[in-house]
């Protein structure tokens, strides 16, 4: 249904004319971060409070106008931009960026959905606590978007995805009502878990406007090590040793393929990537210790001694300072940027049971090499929680645009079918968005999809919340 001329006037009355954008350069709101798609919005509306969000939703619902909730617009699955119809309202939460409260006794922080993740981390640190969610886009992504996609990042092995870090939500329903679930209770068995229903729903069930998140004590020391390993199986074996020696202190465990690190070395030689020429994979480990740096270093040394003796590590370096540790993490975080410098590529965000990852990689590497001439695989990711970014770079020297146009669908099918054979998921932390929505019927059970559609129909009977995302 198209809007009547009065809708924009109503929205201006609700949030102020300055916060209803219909003209000028709206690319920051209408184009996804990877520049895969550019839509056209009826308007970009920027409410400043939960009450304003509710009023905007009620106005749109009254006229059947679709709403696209948006945070930092840093998603990788095209889930937060409008379609090309010019009839959807982008609901930007960026103005709602306040830290409402920090409760040191409860170890919680209540923040609005538009709060940038890095600012949330800084506020926690300023209060003497740790908020452990960390990912490459933390300088621009928002906690509402993190919750909407159930983002992961580099510390999932210890602290879990965003879902595990959330104790409560404030949500505006598709009817414009407000559910206040911000109690921060760790135990509340009074019915269905509505919080978990909205987390990971990508704005298709309602608009997350605020959240109560868990805080943790700051560790006394953090140490980072970089290890060269002779195979993916060796990396999995090292992970087992790390769990054994470090226990809950293991907060990060990243794997990086040789070609992925070679791209960083090629495009950012100043970063001085260590050990990458010597082994097919390197691993980045982080140990957070609540006793002392000396204790942390002793644990790390025993771990690496055991790993060298077991043959799952060929060489390793331990960062001697915070600056060195940051430099090592910067190398890991530069892989996607180096990929972009190299040219167009096909991204996959998959999860596999950790024990099956070596077999998956061996099988799928060989399959793609056999099927796609000149294929280049950029394999890296969060091995500690079974999440790989198993990306395919266009062949060197070829027409990258033509490669994507002609081969993307076939490559996706080859990779996703292999993921299914190994009992994995085609989306680990980036969400489904519109890029993978049509794929779900092939890779998710019929019963699961029927339940999801029943929930969507019950909560959003008009179908106005982020249509075309997750379910099609």
Automatic annotation (TrEMBL):
The keyword Signal does not apply. It comes from the Bacteria. The keyword Ubl conjugation does not apply. Keywords: FAD, Flavoprotein. Gene3D superfamilies: 3.30.465.10, 3.30.70.2190, 3.30.70.2740, Uridine Diphospho-n-acetylenolpyruvylglucosamine Reductase, domain 2, Vanillyl-alcohol Oxidase, Chain A, domain 4. Residues 37-218 form the FAD-binding PCMH-type domain. PROSITE patterns: FAD_PCMH. Belongs to the FAD-binding oxidoreductase/transferase type 4 family. PANTHER family: BLL6224 PROTEIN, D-2-HYDROXYGLUTARATE DEHYDROGENASE, MITOCHONDRIAL. This is FAD-binding oxidoreductase. It comes from Ottowia pentelensis.
